UniProtKB/TrEMBL annotation:
Residues 201-278 form the KH type-2 domain. This is GTPase Era. Residues 37-41 are annotated as: G2. The keyword rRNA-binding applies. It is a peripheral membrane protein. Residues 11-18 are annotated as: G1. Residues 149-151 are annotated as: G5. It comes from the Bacteria. Monomer. It is found in: Cytoplasm; Cell membrane. Belongs to the TRAFAC class TrmE-Era-EngA-EngB-Septin-like GTPase superfamily. Era GTPase family. It comes from Clostridium cibarium.
Length: 296
């Protein structure tokens, strides 16, 4: 019996949703950083074996939105819970059950699909805290399974996938077996550059960044020529992004090139243009242009 289904991964920002999906896929398809609100779109990846096909949906962290981009992100995450076969709710073990998680638990009550609770980052906490979290959460919701894991170290992740498969219905292979994601190459390129900006910059600057790929060409010798606009919200941010003697921008460019060469398996030349688009996160037209469109 072949099993298949859609599995969405939801939770607060920064709990490790993208790390988990990447670990299961064995490939970095969704960017990761230690800053909250890294993921901005729903990203589908597809894991196919001879026995099953799981379509994962990595979603933006659910938070209280402060601008239109935030609203788009939270809506994307909520939408993902409709018409899926399984919901993976990730959180990190702590004694307290905070407001963010309480809000998500409320949303989950409308879910028709079974919900797993995944307590992630057990590598940086104690058994006692895991046990306490487990007790608190199970009072609030009837979870189909509760699994403590470390997405970073891969601890218990195989077990989690096994339980997912057990809970999936018999079904068809939705996608060809060699398809691993629904996102375009250009999207991954933009995201990888944004990841390097997120990792290089501090404070409020990285949250106001968007990346637009304006050119991507492969020469006959195989080298890619990539040009991107790195969009920020303020003139002062532009200065910070470029940095003293262009140091910061150079660092972003170099780390992006390194990772893009691995992703594209070719040599890469990259040019980054820093542009200011005031308040783009609240500008519906700019959001659309930058690919933050309403979900299908
Ligand atoms: N110690 C530890 N760190 C982890 C683990 N999983 C993820 N992280 C770290 O937590 C941070 C956030 O990880 P992400 O995967 O980007 O989290 P996310 O839930 O996708 O975050 P958003 O996209 O912002 O909602 C990164 O610095 C990861 O390296 C884990 O199991 N253990
Ligand atoms: Mg993420």
């Amino acid at each position: 019996m072949f099993k298949s289904g859609f599995v969405t991964i939801v939770g607060r920002p920064n709990v490790g949703k993208s790390t988990l999906m990447n670990h299961i896929m064995g490939e970095k398809l969704s960017i990761v950083s230690n800053k909250p609100q890294t993921t901005r779109n729903n990203i589908q990846t597809i894991l196919t074996t001879k026995d099953y096909q799981i379509v994962f949906v990595d979603t933006p962290g659910i938070h209280k939105p402060k601008h239109k981009l935030g609203e788009y992100m939270v809506n994307s995450a909520k939408e993902s819970m409709k018409e899926v076969d399984l919901v993976i709710f990730i959180t990190n073990p702590d004694e307290e059950l905070g407001r963010g998680d309480k809000f998500i638990l409320e949303t989950l009550k409308n879910s028709k699909a079974p919900v797993f609770l995944v307590l992630n980052k057990v590598d940086e906490t104690t058994k006692e805290k895991v046990a306490m979290s487990l007790a608190k959460f199970s009072q609030e919701f009837n979870f189909k399974e509760i699994i403590p894991i470390s997405a970073l170290r891969g601890k218990n992740v195989d077990k989690l996938v096994e339980l997912m498969v057990e809970n999936l219905p018999e079904g068809p292979q939705y996608y060809p077996e060699d398809m691993i994601t629904d996102v375009q190459e250009k999207f991954v390129v933009a995201e990888l550059v944004r990841e390097k900006a997120l990792r290089t910059l501090r404070d409020e600057v990285p949250h106001g960044i968007a990346v637009d790929v304006i050119q991507m060409k492969q020469k006959e010798n195989g080298t890619y020529h990539i040009e991107v606009d790195l969009i920020c919200e303020k003139d002062s941010h532009k200065g910070i992004i470029i940095g003293k003697d262009g140091q910061s921008l150079r660092k972003i460019g170099e780390s992006a090139r390194y990772e893009l060469e691995r992703f594209l398996d070719s040599k890469v030349n990259i040019k980054i243009w820093v542009k200011v688009r005031k308040e783009w996160r609240d500008n519906q037209n700019l959001l659309k242009e930058l690919g933050y469109k309403k979900n299908k």
